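Before the break, one more example. Copy the sequence into your notebook; we will annotate it together after we see the structure.
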Amino acid sequence: MGKFYIGHLAYKGTQYYGWQKQADVPTIQETIFNTLRGLYEFGRIEVKATSRTDRDVHALAQVVKFLIPRREDPEDVRLKVNEALPDDIYFTQLERINKSFKVTYLALYKEYLYFFSPHRLPYDFVGTIDSEINIEAMKEAARYFVGVHDFRHFQNRAQVGGDFKRKILEAKIVMASEILPQAFKDDEEVYCFYVKGEGFLKQMVRLMMGTLIHIGLDKLNEGQLVDALGGGDLAQKPGFIAPGAGLFLKHIEFPEVYSGDQLRRVVDQEKYKGLFPHFWNGPKPQSFEIT
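Here is what the structure looks like once it is written out:
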């Protein structure tokens, strides 16, 4: 009792093959596990997270539950673990949590951000659309994602017998400085696709982003987008998988749950805001194309 901790984790995914442990390649989960094992040589270690982000995808506030062999002050653990972790992985907050807290499936909703620009800028997490694009058309199209739809055409790998319906609570394209003023200046033409939903299929947000780009390039119209959201047969997917480097997991909301005999909520204090700009920009960041 008292050995379980829950933390909000910021990481830059550029050097990693996603969250989940894989053979022979570096991942976020394995890096944290190995770091904890280095600090606590004996005893059981566990590391779980709410979302399994893909290769190159970043997080502002991934929620991680881990077990260490002994009870310690959460802030002492956070400082100790951060000191041992690589510079591109950082716990912004940490607290004790009840063993029964199910971090993998309690989430009420998740929020994602995808950053892009019609100009080449010195950010390696902002995609460049190297063609003339209609931003207003993209803004108008984004609203069609809101609601309950069949998203079978917005996933990379087809599921067999799965439920493709997902509920999107909000979807919009705004200036990036409106969403994350700590990272972007008001006069920079950087945009953000913001999406909030109760659940997402594999690579769904990146396919939604690729679909909006096709709308902006006049390769797809709103009627075709509506048809795709109906889940019927299509000759091809409405969009493409936008590169992972532009995508951020922003926030995960949890309900109130019992911890012992008291109701409590896991609160994201948004301490990741203090990590900009040095945490996210490398010495010579290179922008990337997403068309």
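The helical segments are 28-39, 74-84, 135-142, 176-179, 204-216, 222-229. The mean pLDDT is 91. Try to locate both features in your own notes.
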